[in-house]
Amino acid sequence: MRLFGVEMEPKEKEQETKRTKKRKSARLFGRDLVPERKRSKIKKTRSSSPPLPPAPLPFPLLQAIHDMEGRDQVFVTRKILEQSDTDAGQNRFFIPKSEVLWGVLTEEERRRVEGGGGVEAMVVDPRGWKYNMRLKKWVSLNKVVLNSGWRKLVDDNELMAEMDCVELWSFRADSKLCFALNVKRDQLQ
After folding, report:
1. pLDDT per residue over 86-95, tens digit each?
2. Which residue pairs from 93-96 have beta carbons closer than 8 angstroms and sit at least 24 positions apart in sequence?
3. Which of 32, 40, 97, 129 sits in a 20 to 30 Å window from 19, CA-based?
4. How much is the pLDDT for 46?
5. Does pLDDT of 36 surpass 80?
């Protein structure tokens, strides 16, 4: 093989790596040219303990779910509220990425959420109060949000950024998508 007018000889050369592999190299001007290894793009995560199981739902919340004839309760996610989740100018709650969330949606609901139009959902707070909201995907940010009523829930429950941890549960009432929101204050872990 010729490179820049110089004859090169391909040869197999064994390189020491964690897993011994044969890698191709070439010689140029009497020196071995070894292809550079690609670095993996694995994000390093902070070492932390495994996630805690969700707290039991408070009685008023359980009672509200029972009164709605709720079924199929599934824990979706836990999140410490961020400033943007409680900001008066932003009427939305960013839901952390969750495979569980997509698993509880019907095929039609998934299609509507993915399309950006969203689906109506009833959200029940820890006192059992109900709020009509919309679950939708903000396609431009590739994030799923609960909005169209989130601000009222924040105000009614006096939710505070960096102080409150919310646990989001999904359930069905008369086949309608519903969420239960449990708030844990002063127990951030």
Report:
1. 999 999 999 9
2. 93/145, 93/146, 93/147, 93/150, 93/166, 94/143, 94/144, 94/145, 95/143, 95/144, 95/145, 95/146, 95/168
3. 32
4. 45
5. no
Q: Where are the domains of the chain?
A: 2-33, 59-185
**Token couple for 126:** 């820890």
- Domain at 59-185, CATH class: mainly beta
Look up residue 75 and give its amino acid: F
Please report the DSSP string for 120-159 in residue order: EEEEE-TTS-EEEEEEEEETTTTEEEEESSHHHHHHHHT-
Residue 32 above 70 pLDDT? no
Q: What gap in Å lies between CA 55 and CA 37, rounded to an integer? A: 46
Residue 186: partners with Cβ closer than 8 Å, 6 or more residues away: 163
